[in-house]
Design goal:
The protein is mostly beta strands. It has strands at about 10-15, 20-25, 30-35, 45, 50, 55-60, 65-70, 75-85, 95-105, 125. The protein has a single domain (about 5-125), classed as Beta Barrel (Lipocalin).
Length: about 140
């Protein structure tokens, strides 16, 4: 059985085709990459068009917070993921992450960019992918 941040690592896909790759660095940090249904990484026009590759993640085991920074820390958007043991207790063995998108109130000008991240459907674990989704990714940490 996996615990903590290990529940989040790996490759995930939602029903619209958005894909997440999460690579653990240590017990409270990871890197996440978000790919569009068309293949390339999601681009962030609000941050000079940077791709959603190797975004920093902070995990708080006490509260169960898994927060992907989509911009600079304490600025812009964060993608929050929840690994819920009740959602993941089905007999079919499918693991699920429940996403939510939050934005700092001071960054009202970003309202128009919510659509970049899709409809925020559950992400299901994609065990068919064993290699990183992007070529620069290399497994880090344990």
């Amino acid at each position: 059985m996996k615990y903590g941040i290990d529940n989040y690592t790996g490759n995930w896909q939602d029903s619209d085709g958005y894909r997440l790759e999460i690579i653990k660095i240590d017990d409270s940090h990871a890197l996440a990459s978000l790919f569009s249904p068309f293949g390339p990484p999601v681009s962030r026009p609000f941050w000079d068009g940077r791709d959603c590759i190797d975004m920093p993640v902070e995990y708080d085991e006490y509260y169960g917070d898994f927060r992907i920074q989509l911009w600079e820390k304490n600025k812009g958007f964060t993608l929050d993921l929840l690994y819920d043991p009740f959602l993941n207790s089905s007999d079919d063995g499918i693991e699920i992450l429940a996403p939510s998108l939050s934005r700092y109130a001071k960054d009202e000008h970003l309202q128009k960019y919510y659509k970049l991240f899709g409809n925020l459907n559950y992400y299901k674990k994609d065990n068919s992918r064993t290699n990183p989704l992007h070529p620069t990714a290399a497994p880090r940490g344990g």
